[in-house]
Amino acid sequence: MTALAELLVNGLASGAVYALVALGFVIVHRSTEVINFAHPSLLLAGGYLVAVLHDDIGFWPALGAGVAGAAALGALVEFVVLRRLRSGSHGTLSIVTIGVDIVLTVEIARRIGAEVLPLGDPWGDRVVQVGGVTIAQARIAALGVAVAAITVFLLAFKYTSWGVAMRAAAEDRATAALMGVRLGRVSAGAWAVAGALAALAALFLCVFPTPGLDRATSFAALKALPAAVIGGVDSTTGALAGGLLIGVTEALAVGYQDEAALLRGGFADIAPYLLMIVVLLIRPTGLFGTRELARA
Amino acid sequence: MPDSIPPSGRRDPGPAGAGTLADPAAPAGVASPPPGGDGARPASRAGRGGWARAAAGLAAAAAVCAVPFYAEAFWLQAGLFAMAAAIGAIGLNLLTGVAGQLSMGHAFFLAVGAYTYVWLAAEPERAAGHTLHGLGWPPPLAAAVAVAAAGIAGGLFSPIAGRLRGASLGIATLALVFLGQHVLFRAEAVTGGVNGRAVPPMEILGLRLADSPEPPVVLGVPFGGLEMLWFPGAALLALAAWFARGVVYGRPGRALTTIRDHEIAAGAMGVPVARYRAGVFVVSSVYAGLAGVLLALVFQRAVPEYFGLALALDYLAMIVIGGLGSVGGAAAGAVFVSLLPQLLTRYGDAIPFVAQPGEEGLSPSEAARVLYGAAFVAVLLYLPRGLRGLLPRCAAPASRARAVRAGDAGDPPR
Amino acid sequence: MRTVRIGIAAAVVACLAAGCSGKATGGGGESGGVKTGPGVTKDTITVSALTDLTGPYAALGKGVTQAQKLYFDQLNAAGGVCGRKVELLVRDHGYDVQKAVAAYSEIAPRSAALPQVIGSPITNALRSRLESDKLLTIPQAWAHTLLGSRYIQLTGTTYDIDMVNAVAFLVKEKGLKAGDRIGHIHLEGDYGQSALAGSRFAAEKSGLKLVEQQVKATDADMTAQAAAFRKAGVKAILVSVSPKQAASLAGVTAAMGLKVPFAASNSAFAQQLLATPVAPVLEREYYVMTAATPFSADVPGVKKLAGDYQKAFPGQPLDSSVFSGYTTAAIVGEALKKACAAKDLTREGIVTAHRSAKAFDIGLGGAPQDYSQWTRPASRAGYIVKPDKAALGGTRVHQEPAESDLAKSYNPPAG
Amino acid sequence: MSPPALRVRDLTAAYGPVPALRGITLEVPAGGVAAVLGGNGAGKSTLLRALSGVLPFHGGAVTGGEITAGGTSLRGLRPDRIVAAGVVHVPEGRHVFARMTVAENLRAGSLGARDRRRAAEARDRVHALFPILAERSRQPAGLLSGGEQQMLAIGRALMAGPDLLLLDEPSLGLAPLVTARIAGTITEINRYGTAVLLIEQNAALALRLADHAYVLETGAVALHGTADELAASDEVRRRYLGVATSGEDEEDLGPGPAVRPLARWAG
Question: The complex's ipTM?
């Protein structure tokens, strides 16, 4: 029973990190209907900035710089690449982000080289024991930050002008433009927010229980992709639910691989994708994705 | 009905829309040998232009035939890789470029083709500690069935594909790559697991297309496996390109473009949308299967590691760089993407910004990745029709006008 | 239709005309009384490395390649082989099978041997070509499934042997006994599978119950695996994953209060980990099974190598990749010298010369290696080293190379 | 006299190589109502898109001419600048944000307003004009009826406090009763000083609401004049009012439910 609880708690905690990444996908998708395949490189960039800066300026300023830097990089990508492609279809724009990701990832990975870079976080390898369940402090922080970030964005989407503009643009770009919504600003804003979230996610992907940032860190972003789809690519709530679901599924598949032969041999790694296919078969728009609302 | 001369907001004025309905007499593209004589051309064109074209085609065919007599193994192999890639890319372009279904799972169907061939053609053997199954079929039969198997795999997936659009479809197909690789690693009895498995050489009419200790000498040149594979490879590519052009410029192509641009309108016009969507998925998988078989034959060993995400993205890059929706473009993109890293690695010493192995700086592989990623972005930004757009004669005003009209259907609901 | 027929005819003519080409039919011949083959000219012998400088094994590739450059520079400075300079041709494949195969077909026609091939999948993909080209090849991989080819030489112990020795060590020194549970975390793929073959054999022989956890190369967080080990109540953990994954596992188990010894494959440790927060855990109870002599060992040849390497590549990490690169280059160098003495620098001659070494030892520590057969590992004895921040190269010797009785009774199934 | 709410001179526009507008010249006086009539494909929607700067979203571009509104040149401005200049376009087919609530739709309408502090004031006015929007304020807009959606679309545009409202086919697809209700609102809006450029296929309705009217054919102005002149013209009567050429008068186009369902131009 304790074992199950521990698996669940740890699954939720790593799921929270996936949720942060998935939220980045969702925000860009909501405002521009583009699946941002360059997200992994934003994540790597944010993590890299924290890793190289924390020694000189301390962890918290470095984290701020990482978040700001990744946000700026996101906005820059939007401004330099995507904005010039305004006429392209969403599919084309999604494809172009793959190219952006390749270029950025090669450069950052080259800088990281073969190193494993610690991020100098304050949590270290401290853990909390609750009734026999062990959980790393860093993971509790991740859970807290993810829930907080997602709540903030839910509220912002609902109540701020920025949120209304973003939702309007997501639904109908031409009409939003007719309302005086500045589409460029909306989509650059979305990219910046996605970058900031990616940097936060990078932080939690690279602190305990992992030793630090290396060039493979960005692969985690690929696990968040099914999380975003399972939740529904245009739903912020969905990002949270999808992320947690993936985290728990993975933890359970790993934890019980000894008991069930099916789970053995790396099943945990494909479980998110299997789950995604099942969800898509039942609900093509994902668990929380919006269907067209119409009377007809 | 709204004002109807103008095209709608939904049409993709960029790559896809303009690329698909270009002048049917446009050249097939730099890399694809002309599709077998003049069968694909409308009869009215068979005037003087027809002869000129036939002559150009013959020259190209002759040039292709001459390659194995001159080129060293490196170039033959690179060429064969490019041919296989071109076949796969043409198939993907039918699906993604023409029909607008984003697929990031092409690598999966390549793997189905490659491994089905290996399994059917191989004799049972023991290797690396496990027993490998094999049916020992004659290789040509095995290849044909492998290609069909890839098509069937596509058919099985098409119900899922039919339910999804755009990026969601892309991600679902991405899942295929991961699931497929998982199965390849597990199904050791068929695939050989991580170590992969030797690919039985093709045998046509008793002739083994493989290296042998005493290679047959043709006109003074010893013919190894690569030399011999060159000819069927080129023929298959020509056939694949010819058939794809028929699809693109014929009724199915128009139906698919209409579905891509206006699915609801297409349905209303009586186009059987679901059937076309499934059909193009199957056709594209068949192409992938064929490419997979050819790749396996060139590799001589099929290793699951190869059929991963990177390969799937490579194929997407090929069609984007070459030009969405165009057969010649896909082939050109395939040549570009598959040759670029090899050339940079080989001639890296002579290129100023590329560092030597083991030195600091941008290594050849990195330079290749950066160039390829940048080409990806630059093509979409500045060459919406891809490499193909660089060719003269492609931007005939008449065809553009047609493209505009075909894309029109007012302002569809979002 | 007429056009088509004319077309075919013209194509045939063109093909025939093409026949007047001068495509070379490969090297070979004799010069100065020495038989030569591809890759050997009057004044140079070319050997090639297919390495990974940009992919997941970039760290390994860089160290190996630089060490090999160092070796061949030293060899050439000492007069080369057979009056010829030995040139190392390096091609980076970034761990991509297709690039590697392409690079191979470029370099193979002008190479006499391959002192470095990184990546099991790549070695496997090239295997049949290597055999038909008769190229002496030394992969930087230690999966037993690569055994069984006359042309492919694995150096030192294989992963399975290492794990057999590891279990023997844990039983002997860490007090594991029959009925205990022992965990083994391993990567999917060749490396993990090979290690697993050894641990399964050894666990069964020792009456231990093996708890297996497989992970993928992309997994970074080992919390779930650590929890599973704790749940199973393992008394020790065998580690055959990437260094970063090993660090995560060690960190989590320590934080969970699961204090057990770790015995790791040589690829599950990297010096860089000593800069991360898990360093103290690794220094406490982490043992690495390796055939490579640690640079802190008291072996004159290794001390000299460390000095030379640091002079040639200042500031570069000194780890087992350097040792491995240097020794594998030396194996090829020695084979070339012997082949020269036998006046046969053809590929077959080089392989024959290499295969005549029954107790290869060039003063770099470790157990002598037997290269005369290829279905068994060259050695069954490896060092057991411990991470140590203060030690040169990050590790120090915990136990000198020894062949456990368990390893003696183990016969890996050759591939 | 204040400058006209809109002045268009020799406006040309094209979709790629296909010309869509060829030298349009028209004017909407300050506080006036002008109507544009024309068949399918005459370029009416293109004209409005050109004025509001969203033609590029539809693959087209303005290729020549001048557009000024209240003395400001609009040509080449981004849509948000045009909104800020006081010109707001209600697109054909309404295009309410279906997934957002009615209140949020109205809020979206105020995003481009020159003075956002007056959003509350604007909302009160819209609610007064369309009480149903206040009632349904928390419902998703996609669940409104067609007429309610049209009201929302107009209300949303009013949130920006426009000087000139560009209305594209407000009666499209609506029942006669609803159409009359919308027509009444347009007059009401105009009474508060907002100029209106109205596109309608329901020519009778348009001519009743407008002071001036223009007839577009294949992208060019074929006829123009005061609404009364055009209503009296044989050609307009025949082609747009569905009336046989007799001198039958149009008196029964009176307000309210009495509007006669007119034959629509090949819809």
Answer: 0.77
